[in-house]
Design a protein that fits this description.
Blueprint (H helix, E strand, L loop, with lengths): L5 E4 L3 H11 L4 E9 L2 E15 L2 E11 L10 E12 L2 E18 L5 E8 L3 E5 L6 E2 L5 E9 L6 H12 L9 E4 L3 E6 L1 H9 L3 E8 L9 E11 L7 E11 L10 E3 L6 H7 L6 H7 L1
Length: 290
């Protein structure tokens, strides 16, 4: 029997998915083989659908990457991938859509830079239920600030929090802390060996904080109480990978000197989720095709 979270659609509902991708303004990934500097090249594009008419879509390019090496696909063929939030009997779920297509037209600006693609997408579309939140691979340049602090006691006031963060920045810990990946529900961070040893022998809760580089300059840091899910030594160039699950998020809107923490264990952080939509990733596509 086919698993409940893995199946394929082979009907006209896929055209409705294309329209929903445009309405929800989700990030779409297109892999294609096109002429580049006189030669065929495999390319990966990230962007959004601007218009949808049945299976023909106008795709606006926000980011382009040329894959090194000899092209492995046929000219003007493509493959699409995107995720949609949909209602189910158990609540909202994320569904991943992936399938082939062809490039009908390439649009360029006055500098001959590729800016949009007109595509015809196939009606044969693989669909799978994805994890609740995408994991975004993370490089250090994506963080203005990032760190992990083991907690003996949860900070109760803004003064406690400022003292805790000041203590972190006065230590020898890297700033920003390298991260393997992050999602709205948790993070995998590369922690120093002394902190890893402490994590092995104690069952601390942790405070994780981050300011992504694409967050508005006026935005408050994202700060979470977290619990340890595990350690791994082969994911980081230096240190040990610590997997954390976010349990509570600092509520910056709460007035007064005392801190208020919102329970997000079941839902993840909607604020961080919105921010992470600004970053491209490939984790969902790997999960879909694995």
């Amino acid at each position: 029997m086919t698993a409940a979270n893995t199946y394929c659609l082979w009907n006209s509902n896929t055209t409705e998915a294309f329209a929903n991708a445009m309405r929800q303004r989700v990030s779409v990934r297109i892999r294609s083989c096109l002429l580049h500097e006189g030669n065929l090249a495999d390319m990966v594009f990230h962007g959004k659908f601007r218009s949808v008419e049945g299976r023909e879509v106008q795709f606006i390019v926000r980011h382009k990457e040329v894959i090194p090496g000899k092209s492995k696909a046929l000219e003007n063929t493509c493959e699409f991938f995107f995720c949609l939030e949909e209602e189910s009997s158990s609540g909202k779920v994320r569904m991943g859509y992936q399938g082939p297509g062809i490039v009908l037209e390439v649009g360029q600006n006055e500098k001959n830079e590729l800016r949009n693609l007109r595509l015809r997408l196939a009606k044969d579309c693989s669909v799978r239920q994805m994890r609740r939140d995408k994991r975004v691979p993370w490089s250090t340049d994506r963080s203005r600030l990032a760190g992990v602090v083991p907690l003996e006691d949860v900070p109760a006031t803004r003064t406690d929090l400022r003292a805790l963060l000041a203590q972190y920045y006065n230590s020898s810990h890297p700033n920003p802390l390298p991260l393997v990946n992050i999602s709205a529900g948790g993070v995998c961070a590369c922690i120093p060996e002394e902190l890893a040893k402490l994590s092995l022998t104690s069952n601390f809760s942790y405070l994780f904080f981050i300011v992504p580089n694409k967050a508005p300059a006026s935005a408050q840091p994202y700060i979470f109480l977290s619990k340890k899910m595990g350690l791994c030594r082969n994911l980081c160039d230096e240190g040990t990978a610590l997997r954390l699950l976010f349990t509570e998020e600092l509520n910056w809107d709460s007035p007064g000197p005392n801190l208020k923490w919102n329970d997000i264990l079941a839902s993840g952080s909607s604020r961080l989720r919105t921010c992470l939509e600004e970053y491209y990733d490939n984790e969902d596509e790997i999960s879909l095709t694995a």
